[in-house]
Amino acid sequence: MKVLSLLLVMGFGFAHAQAEPECTTDALLTYNISYKGQGQELKIYRQDQRVLRVFSVKGMTEGWNKTPTGRLKLTRYFDMDKQGIEYQPGEEESLGKKTWQQIQMGVPPNITQHMNLVSTQGTGCQLIETYESPDKKETYSWYPQRQVLLQYNSERGNPLSWTLTSDKTGNFDQAFALREEYRLIDYADIGDREDDPFVKKMINWGFIDHGASGFYDHHGHALPGQHHGQHHEQLQGQVQDESHGHSH
Amino acid sequence: MKLLPVFSLTPALLLAACSSTPIAQYEEPVDKTNAWFAQGEGAIAEKTEVFSQLKTQSGSAKNIILFVGDGMGISTITAARILDGQRKGLAGEENQLSFGQFPFSGLSKTYNVDAQTPDSAGTMSAMITGIKTDAGIISIDEDVERGDCSTVAGNEVMTALQMAEIAGLSTGIVSTARITHATPAATYSHSADRNWEDISDMPQEAVDQGCADIASQFVNFERNLEEKYAVEVDGIDVAMGGGRRHFLPKDAAFNSADAVSSTEGDRTDGRDLTAEWQELYPEGQYLIDQAGFDALDPATTNKVFALFNESHMHYEANRANDGAGEPSLSEMTQKAVQILQKNEKGFFLMVESGRVDHAHHAGNAYNALSEAVELSNAVQVAQELTSSDDTLIIVTADHSHVFTIAGYPKRGNPILGKVVGIGEQEPTLAADGMPYTTLGYANGRGFQDLGDETDADVAYSLDINTGRKDISDINTEAPGYHQEALIPRDSETHAGEDVGIFASGPGGHLVTGTNEQSVIFHVMNHAGGLSAKAAAAMTKENSETEE
User: Fold this and answer.
1) Is residue A136's pLDDT more than 60?
2) pTM given for the model
3) Could you tell me which of B6, B72, B340, B429 has the fewest CB atoms within 10 Å of its CB?
4) Nearest beta carbon to residue B457 from set A187, A194, A207
């Protein structure tokens, strides 16, 4: 199965190699994440110093931006209600030491520190590197120039896989602009907003399930989510994020 | 000679009647060598002196400073006093915060017209207007319907700051919360909803009906007052705090140099209120960071508008984490007083420690008490810069929190620590066999062990975790420790019991007793003669106009 996965990755990369896209980290990346036998889709919009991580099934988006001083600021958007909670920079760092790479890529490349480079393919922006752990329980493929994860598989403990299913470049202003129209509340103000029905609902919803936070440390260990999230009904009519661009 | 019945005579008198022996003099049955006793006697002497020199005449206070510790109930004050003392190397209990040494104190009943346990808007409105109103309302009487702009007109109530302004005093507001947040907002604006901090927070209907958002009312304070009362004023002289986002357009081009959001401003009307303010006051100083604050010279500055953060300012314990630096509450108070006191007519200043409340909501005593200690420092600064002969200083809270000091810890036990009983070295165990902290909350998000984390609000992104925990191996004195709570809630709540009022200076004695919270305005008004001076100024203006 692992060999097949590697072949698929190489084929994916080969097909993309023919398109000659720009070497940019800006992108709309769609991943299928399978963890503990459960799958979910994660879309990651990357543009300049901003990232949106869209969990459509849960109706929730994480918005990250890097401040001029390099700190990370999080805003959680609740897409069904078009409202959100914003945090002071740095709070999320204190809860797992998230890095910009983790936010942009999900599984950061420093996970390969304990792996061996087993193959390379392509050149420049389309260079693909594939790593495998000595015990062959983990594989990691990525575009190092574009900082894009292609595929990650782990059979340590709970089976985990990240698979890039779509890779688009272009302008994604609309996706960000859509959420900038949401009504936001400081989470420092939550205590003073008990009268707001949405505030009560937001807090008790929970955010992202344990183990499926979309963040992994350099050992490939899933970082726990911040809440035992309650699953929402699948978003009826997903948020239409217009992405103007082309696929790799 | 008629003999008097023997039983009607005291032994001494009987002896005197029957002999020439001098009357025995009993000594007072007290131990004056006891330190506690001596301290008590000294206190009576001081109080007697103070009460003999009361300034009761209206208008005796040239200056008025109102300090509000948002959420700073009695248990918070007591615990903060102990923590402050312990930080100084004392046992703690015998310590006094600055305002704990004020000669006058009383209690304030904090309920709103429609709420047994109140919120900051209705409570501050009561303190600053003399009239109680509903929860969530900013300086409008109870005839208003929350959120309904059409019920505002005619129900606005003039505030003490507005009166002071009309009377020709210099005026200022300082807060560690957003300047548009409930407590500071109540001093200068009127709003049917405390959440209408900028136009994007308002329903379109309210905008169409002519209600102005709170930030807009701040910038238009001078014009609004002049139009409504046909007077000549010069606007709020000092305003320092957070909340920059409510004054800037929702356009990244207007981001401040230290913006942390990709788009800092929230306003959807395209207005840059910081620029409007600067245009109104070309000589005024608009500041956003520590460097600007440090460069501010009170001797030559007459107008300052400082917004140090997009939203609230940092907790005092977390202030070092601000990218561009923020001054402390005591630093802001110092410069505010120095600027305002140049006015020979006097000044009115409101200083709020806005984040005791936030820390309690997050269930974090360390930050709540640190904020209260910093408020004490700010009061100390104000005292040193002014004279109790002509300056009324009031320190109070808008409401309390469900924060308790419990168990039987021995004298000097770390206030943030686990209960260790008299004569013991090990923590006392509860009936469940586990230790417990002196401090706790009746409700809230409950226990968290976040170690050195100094931002109390981090707890909101973690699971609610109420009930008993085994804290045997946990350092409960660390900044990031959130105390156990009983009832699970999204956030810890306000409490409904009375809060303290502490006063010094002319009229301060009037806080004595158990008062409706609205009486605080009346104390200030009597002491400063505010409404009378405002009326005199309005009369003079209008008579000059008629001429």
Assistant:
1) yes
2) 0.87
3) B6
4) A187
* Cβ within 8 Å, pair A226-B462: yes
CA distance A91 to B455: 8
Q: Under a CB-based contact definition with an 8 Å cutoff, are residues B459 and B364 in contact?
A: yes
Task: Name the band, by pLDDT with cuts 50, 70 and 90, for residue A174.
Answer: very high
Among candidates B260, B457, B493 on the partner chain, residue whose Cβ is nearest the Cβ of A71: B260
Chain A residue numbers with beta carbons less than 8 Å from the beta carbon of B136 are: 195
Q: Contact B337/B293 with Cβ under 8 angstroms?
A: no
Residue A15 banded pLDDT, cuts 50, 70, 90 = very low
Measured over the CA atoms of residue A19, residue A23, residue A29 and residue A32, the dihedral's sign is: positive
In the sheet that holds B499-504, the strands lie side by side as: B285-287, B304-307, B238-242, B170-178, B347-353, B63-69, B391-397, B499-504, B104-109, B513-516
A200 CB within 8 Å of a chain B CB: yes
User: Is residue A10 scored above 70 in pLDDT?
Assistant: no
**Cβ–Cβ contact A88 with B under 8 A:** yes
Closest CA to B507 of B160, B98, B54, B48: B54
CB B538 within 8 A of CB B229: yes
Copy the structure tokens of residue B180: 């548009």
Task: Retrieve residue A133's tokens.
Answer: 């752990």
- With CB atoms and an 8 Å threshold, state whether A187 touches B461: yes
What integer pLDDT is reported at residue B55 of this predicted model?
A: 82
Contact A222, A142 (CB under 8 A): no
Query: In the predicted model, is pLDDT for residue A247 greater than 70?
Result: no
Measured CA angle at B234 (ends B337, B327), to 5 deg: 35
Whether the pLDDT of residue A55 is over 80: the answer is yes
Task: Residue A92: name the closest of A110, A113, A112, A67 by CA.
Answer: A67
Q: Check CB contact under 8 Å for B492 and A95.
A: no
Rounded distance, CA A26 to CA A15, Å?
A: 20
| B239's tokens | 């305003």
Taking contacts as CB-CB distances below 8 angstroms, the residues of chain A near B263 are 180
- The rounded mean pLDDT for chain A is 76
Distance from CA of A202 to the nearest CA of B (A): 10
Q: Which residues in chain A have Cβ-Cβ distances shorter than 8 Å to B455?
A: 88, 90-91, 94
Q: How far apart are CA A205 and CA A230, in angstroms?
A: 6
What whole-number distance in Å separates Cα of residue B316 and Cα of residue B83? 15
With cut-offs at 50, 70 and 90, classify the pLDDT of residue A88.
confident
In this prediction, residue A203 carries a pLDDT of 62
pLDDT value of position B212: 98
DSSP class of residue B115?
A: B
Question: Exactly one of B120, B125, B189, B400 is catalytic; which is it?
Answer: B120
> What parts of chain B have a pLDDT lower than 50?
1-10, 12
Residues 6+ apart with CB under 8 A from B417: B409, B437, B438, B476, B477
- Three-class secondary structure of residue A220 per DSSP: coil
Q: In chain A, which residues have their Cβ closer than 8 Å to the Cβ of B119?
A: 192
Q: How many CB atoms lie within 10 A of CB B340?
A: 23
**Cβ–Cβ < 8 Å for B336, B351:** yes
| Token representation of residue A226 | 């911040």
Pairwise CB contact (< 8 Å): A192 & B357: yes
B530, burial (CB in 10 Å: exposed 0-12, middle 13-18, buried 19+): buried
Beta carbons of A187 and B460 less than 8 Å apart? yes
User: Residue B251's closest chain A neighbor by CA?
Assistant: A180
Question: Which residues, at least 6 apart from B4, have a Cβ–Cβ distance to it below 8 Å?
Answer: none
